[in-house]
Amino acid sequence: EVALNEKETLLTLKGTNNFEGNTANNWGGAIVNQDAIIRDTVASKNSFHGNSVTNDRYGLGGALVNITQYKSTANSIVEFIGTVKYISNSSVYGGGAVANIPSAENFKTSMTFKGTTLFQNNQALGGFGGAIWNADAQLEFLGTQEFIGNSAKYGWGGAIASFQDFGMKTSLLI
Fold first, then answer.
1. Under 8 Å between Cβ of 112 and 142
2. pLDDT digit string (tens) for 86-117?
3. Across the chain, which distance is largest between two alpha carbons, in Å?
4. Which among 67, 51, 58 is positioned nearest to 26, based on CA atoms?
5. Fewest Cβ atoms nearer than 10 Å: which of 24, 66, 84, 151?
6. How many CA atoms lie within 13 A of 120 on its CB side?
7. Integer CA distances (angstroms), 129 to 7, 43, 75, in order
8. Among positive and negative, which fits the CA dihedral 165, 166, 170, 174?
9. How many C-beta atoms lie closer than 10 Å to residue 117's C-beta?
10. Which 3-state string (H, E, C) describes 26-93?
11. Which of 136, 119, 127, 7 is nearest to 64 (CA)?
């Protein structure tokens, strides 16, 4: 079961949110954010555990995909300022936990982690980024991050595979 947030809408995650054991064929085992915005609150606690995508050609973002797809004027933005845990998520192709991608050049796609984030035991089973695959999009870490035991079985970046410049500040990489 997948939550789809699309077409310039805002999804706000408040309180405690657990996304566990969800499966999708192509993108985002738990959530697909397409041409839209996802934000949480400082007090929120979000957990993505055991989510997966199964398609071997397009299987991206075991827990979450952030994509700008249809309009060059739209932005796809994900901003976490609370606590987020990504544990034991998997994708067949890329981004065991998260994929942050535009579908065309000059589309604006960004993801920011401002709170405390844990990426643990996530797997990209056949591609890139055991925890995160970031391709031609903005990825920022402004809080405290831990990357523990993530793997990209046949690709690059056990923790992060990024094909665009991104800033990391105040991060703990393990």
1. yes
2. 999 999 988 999 998 876 666 678 888 989 99
3. 38
4. 58
5. 151
6. 9
7. 27, 28, 23
8. negative
9. 24
10. CECCCEEEECCEEEECCCCEEEEECCEECCCCCCECCCEEEEECCCCCCEEEEEECCEEEEECCEECC
11. 119
